[in-house]
């Protein structure tokens, strides 16, 4: 159904892309500091994530191989449970090309099923689960991604073919950068940032070095609008109250169908709580029905 569009408060989904030496980690920490609250970092770069402990106050979890999507998801969940406000994934590229990452998982699947398409069918859902964990997290999330230089063969004005550098592509699944609110590309020379995507419109056409103030600007933009946390909590409380009055499994299933859209709009934690309550209520009603049938028999 259609409804009136409105700006809602949101959590940051930012990706910092650049080659080695472009300042991705430190830029992520400065921006995280500007967002405020406790900062956590998942470090896949051989403990290099702790090099800036004298600059910014943050906690770090070192992730060694294998860099499977599931291990990232487990650490994201752990960060959510430990009262952090910002989580930095440094780097997300390892989940794709690192040891035990998606590409290696695909290669292993190919050896088992001898079919690349079938192998992707097995592996892609695991990568999608990582994307869902990032997008659905209750934390501000900043990722870093290494970049590779992309080239094209083009014809110049004289009709001769030439190799032309067309830009920097993140080392991740094609199109991964479109999942984020903002994507900043960093240069090695001066650590200058430009935005290749910016839904906030705060940085369009600008060339800048990311600082704490960059995070503060993002925080102000993110907090403008409807409070989604409060909205989700109020709706989940309404759903909890209504589900307690249900007396039969068919009535429960009908309730689930009517409220599916409302449940899907909840934040991840509230959504999981409602689904757990639904399952518990279903088991309770089935047990009561079975007891009644046994008594009649």
Give the ordered list of helices and strands: EHEEHEHHHEEEEHHHH
What class do helices, strands and sheet pairing give? alpha/beta
Low-confidence segments, given as residue ranges, are none
The total beta strand count reads 8
Task: Indicate the CATH class of the largest domain.
Answer: Alpha Beta
**Tally of distinct domains:** 2
Number of helical stretches of at least 4 residues: 9
SSE order and pairing:
Blueprint: E1 13-18, H1 24-35, E2 39-43, E3 59-62, H2 69-81, E4 86-90, H3 94-97, H4 102-113, H5 116-135, E5 140-155, E6 161-170, E7 182-186, E8 193-198, H6 212-222, H7 228-244, H8 249-264, H9 268-296
Structure report:
With 297 residues, this protein is of the alpha/beta class. The chain folds into 2 domains: 210 residues, 3-Layer(aba) Sandwich (Rossmann fold); 69 residues. The protein has 9 helices and 8 strands. Strands 1, 2, 3, 4, 5, 6, 7 and 8 form an 8-stranded mixed sheet that branches. Helix 4 runs antiparallel to helix 5, helix 7 runs parallel beside helix 9 and helix 8 packs antiparallel against helix 9. It is globular, with a radius of gyration of 23 Å. The model has no long low-confidence stretch (mean pLDDT 90).
């Amino acid at each position: 159904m259609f409804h009136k569009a409105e700006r809602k408060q949101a959590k940051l989904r930012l990706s910092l892309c650049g080659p080695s030496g472009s300042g991705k980690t430190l830029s992520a920490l400065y921006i995280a500091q500007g967002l405020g609250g406790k900062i956590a970092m998942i470090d896949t770069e051989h403990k290099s994530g702790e090099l800036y402990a004298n600059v910014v106050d943050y906690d770090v979890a070192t992730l060694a191989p294998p860099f499977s999507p599931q291990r990232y998801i487990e650490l994201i969940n752990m960060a959510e449970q430990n009262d952090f406000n910002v989580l930095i994934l440094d780097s997300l590229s390892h989940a794709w090309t690192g040891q035990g990452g998606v590409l290696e998982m695909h290669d292993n699947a190919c050896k088992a099923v001898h079919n690349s398409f079938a192998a992707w069918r097995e592996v892609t859902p695991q990568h999608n689960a990582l994307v869902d964990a990032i997008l659905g997290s209750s934390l501000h999330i900043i990722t870093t991604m290494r970049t590779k230089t992309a080239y094209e063969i083009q014809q110049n004005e004289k009709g001769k073919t030439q190799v032309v550098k067309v830009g920097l592509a993140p080392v991740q699944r094609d199109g991964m950068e479109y999942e984020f609110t903002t994507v900043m590309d960093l240069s090695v020379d001066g650590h200058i940032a430009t935005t290749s995507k910016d839904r906030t419109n705060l940085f369009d056409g600008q060339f800048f070095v990311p600082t704490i103030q960059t995070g503060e600007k993002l925080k102000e933009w993110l907090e403008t609008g409807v409070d989604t946390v409060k909205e989700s909590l109020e709706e989940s409380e309404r759903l909890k109250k209504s589900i307690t009055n249900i007396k039969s499994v068919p009535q429960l299933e009908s309730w689930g169908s009517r409220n599916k859209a409302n449940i899907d709009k909840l934040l991840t934690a509230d959504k999981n709580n409602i689904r757990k309550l639904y399952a518990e209520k279903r088991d309770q009603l089935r047990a009561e029905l079975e007891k009644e049938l046994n008594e009649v028999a």
